[in-house]
Amino acid sequence: MASGSPLLWPRVLLFGDSITQFSFQQGGWGASLADMLVRKCDVLNRGFSGYNTRWAKIILPRLVRKGSGLDSPVAVTIFFGANDSALKDENPKQHVPLEEFAANLRSMVRYLQSVDVPEGRLILITPPPLCEAAWAQECLQQGCKLNRLNSVVGEYARACLQVAQDCGAEALDLWTLMQKDGQDFSSYLSDGLHLSPKGNEFVFSHLWPLIEKKVSSLPFLLPYWRDIAEARPELSLLGDGDH
């Protein structure tokens, strides 16, 4: 049986906490990316609910290794801070001090550079704003006190932007965009912390232009069905896969 060379499917890597893990749910921002990139890229969801940058930094080398240049992701989102910014007194397990948070992000960017994922392929995403009233209700149901504050989340968002600027990576400042012009951002969140369907739409609409720039030169993989040679389909199907 004739076989062409293996088809290399470029990859987009989504690395983050629950806001990334849940992004493949129906209407999720990750699912929307995967839909836009079908037959161009595989979108890999590497979101870990509850994780902070201290833990993320440890697992990143297990997720991305140095391979041939063709293996390395064409784009990577790094989306942490919602757990790091938890208040130390109320949630010491997830809390990561601000300076360490910034250092961890820097360290992850440096690691990716060392395995041939240059900063031009990276997008650092700030945590979204926190709706304290809704999250307080959630905490109450879990039997704990309010363990996050929007003003504190804002400090982590600014640190994320600073790291992106220092490293030459792109940034998506959700914390600022969702609160722009003093708008009520609570409808973007399902429980004050995680994204609602409207919030997922918002993230996708702002993230897609950044991703699209990084993948615009990638071909559509394998020919359109009308273009396949009828008499000898293998001539169309065992080429280089670029269409």
List keywords for this structure.
single chain, 243 residues, alpha/beta, Rossmann fold, five-stranded parallel sheet, elongated, Isoamyl acetate-hydrolyzing esterase 1 homolog, hydrolase activity, acting on ester bonds, GDSL
Overall description:
This protein is 40% helix and 10% strand. By secondary structure, it is an alpha/beta fold. It has a single domain, classed as SGNH hydrolase (Rossmann fold, 3-Layer(aba) Sandwich), CATH 3.40.50. Helix 2 runs parallel beside helix 8. Helix 4 links the parallel strand 3 and strand 4. InterPro entries: GDSL, Iah1-like, SGNH_hydro_sf. Belongs to the 'GDSL' lipolytic enzyme family. IAH1 subfamily. One of its GO terms (molecular function) is hydrolase activity, acting on ester bonds.
Cα(first) to Cα(last) distance is: 23 Å
CATH C-level label: Alpha Beta
In round numbers, the mean pLDDT is: 94
Rounded to the nearest angstrom, the radius of gyration is: 20 Å
Topology as a string of helices (H) and strands (E):
EHHEHEHEHHEHHH
Largest sheet: 5 strands, parallel
Strands in their spatial order, largest beta sheet: 2-1-3-4-5
Helix content: 25-40%
The tally of strands reads 5
Morphology call: elongated
Uncertain ranges: none
CATH superfamily: SGNH hydrolase
Specify the CATH architecture.
3-Layer(aba) Sandwich
Integer count of domains: 1
Structural class: alpha/beta
CATH topology: Rossmann fold
Strand residues, percent: 5-15%
Count, helices? 9
